[in-house]
Amino acid sequence: MAAATDKTLIVVAGPTAVGKTAAAIKLAQHFGTEIVSADSRQFYKEMSIGTAKPTIDELAAAPHHFIGSHSVEENFTVGDFEKAGVNAINEIFRFKNIAVLVGGSGLFVKAICEGFDELPSAPAEVREKLNIQLKEHGIDSLQLRLKEADPVYYAEVDINNPQRVIRALEVFDATGKPFSSFRSANVMSRPFRIVKIGLNMPREILYDRINQRVDAMIADGLVDEVKSLLPYRHLNALNTVGYTEIFDYLEGKINLPTAIELVKQHTRQFAKRQLTWFNNDKEIHWINPSEDDVLKVAKRLLETSNPGN
């Protein structure tokens, strides 16, 4: 996706724990530019350990946007992010020719690169009915419905996130059409070029990195972080991997070893879904960050991308 401009957005995408932060910082430092985060969980200032936010040293290594920028009590939607993210990128382009977008949240990356389709709103009674089903029968029943109604989105979405599952079912129940059918209607032309680099590695290595990251989160105090968020347990921002499992432990539903294993399992499943999403984007140039130099790849893509296309 290119535009007749000397301004270029380099996108660094891929599954969790693959090394996106380090790659983005390397690019930002070389090009003397700034990083815009498209990680839908790292927006929230109350959630740090469980979202694997960049460390203090990493944040100091390059300017970052949308890290701890919002409270879990705020309703920051993908539509909100599109507007704020594009504004931040355009501000960077006032002084720089290159900006870096990094994240594993496919819908948020897509919103910046292609625009966000306005989804139909659902009647309140539809949402209420789905919330009642969640409360009385658990998320399993909603996951099954989504798998039948929209297998395309089911294969991509974090199915352990009730907010995402319910939103998709809302659209389906209100319109009779799959949620996925509304996401590709129009691709917005951006006033800057976009090159996309995807990071991936052999599955067993990625899964080992995920397991090690979860162990490090526990050692760094994830349980205490989640405990501090108990008053916000009901908020959608906290219906996410790494938090729901520890909430269940704190509420006495499971023991801690089980919670930790579930965090690892659900994170591995989430990574698989992230890859399913990004593999559908044929503009992504895939590399193995342990074997390929992201900077060399970025330079080659910048040289070969034609601003006239």
From TrEMBL:
A single GO BP: tRNA modification
MF term (GO), any: tRNA dimethylallyltransferase activity
Family: Belongs to the IPP transferase family.
Region span, Interaction with substrate tRNA: 39-42, 163-167
Lineage, top ranks: Bacteria, Pseudomonadati, Bacteroidota, Sphingobacteriia, Sphingobacteriales
This protein's name: tRNA dimethylallyltransferase
Binding-site residues, substrate: 16-21
Cofactors (names): Mg(2+)
Assembly behavior: Monomer.
Keywords from the UniProt entry: ATP-binding, Magnesium, Nucleotide-binding, Transferase, tRNA processing
EC number: 2.5.1.75
Its biological purpose: Catalyzes the transfer of a dimethylallyl group onto the adenine at position 37 in tRNAs that read codons beginning with uridine, leading to the formation of N6-(dimethylallyl)adenosine (i(6)A).
UniProt binding sites for ATP: 14-21
Residues carrying the site annotation Interaction with substrate tRNA: 105, 127
Entry annotated with the keyword Transferase: yes
Reactions mediated catalytically: adenosine(37) in tRNA + dimethylallyl diphosphate = N(6)-dimethylallyladenosine(37) in tRNA + diphosphate
Pfam families recorded: IPPT
